[in-house]
Design goal:
By secondary structure, the protein is an alpha+beta fold. Helices cover 41% and strands 17% of the residues. It contains eight helices and six strands. The strands form two sheets. A three-stranded antiparallel β-sheet has the order 1-3-2. Strands 4-5-6 form a three-stranded antiparallel β-sheet.
Amino acid sequence: MAGKRKKNPAGSTNSYRGDVLRVLGALKVAAADQIQRIGAPHLTFRHADKETPSKRKQARTASHTGALSDMRKHGLSENGGSTETGDSLRHLTTKGLQAASYELRCPVTEMGSTARGAGSSGASHPMAVNETVIAMLRPKPNMAKLAIDPPHVQAAAQAAVDAPDSIGTIASYWTEVSLPATGTWNAPGKVGAQADIVLTAPQDQVPLLFIEVDKLPREC
């Protein structure tokens, strides 16, 4: 046990580090809150009784925050600025993208960039893209992980399980994908468009879908 703690001083598990790799491999940049809601949605219900929203967020994201800390120590992830609401943004390093390629079963040549610098101005657009993905994923809690939680917690989680099904899995989504008019997918030319989200979920009758996410302008 002592050796494991020395290697991962924040005490993270393979499961939570895998969540981070899969989510950041697909979304490129995200807050711990978004990683938790996709990777371990049962935690949202377990900590719903905390007194304040900030305490609820701190409790439910603690495991993934620990995973991010350990992964940063191992050179797999980095902090990358913060959102407009003050949440720290995280992204993978080149080494992290390689690890994510194994988790997502995708060639590393198709993993895209590390998103370095995406959070320098709040990353409002990437955050909107991420929330669009979450809305389509509709992450459902694993009820087995809530087996000893109070009945009202289980009831709330069961309602989420019984909600309409999601479209695809996190591995079905890719963000900020170049659509080259020249060159190749791996080496696109300078001319071409970029899709905010590319979804491939043939199991849900969505073989290929390009999604553009626009933010409404702020009122002055």
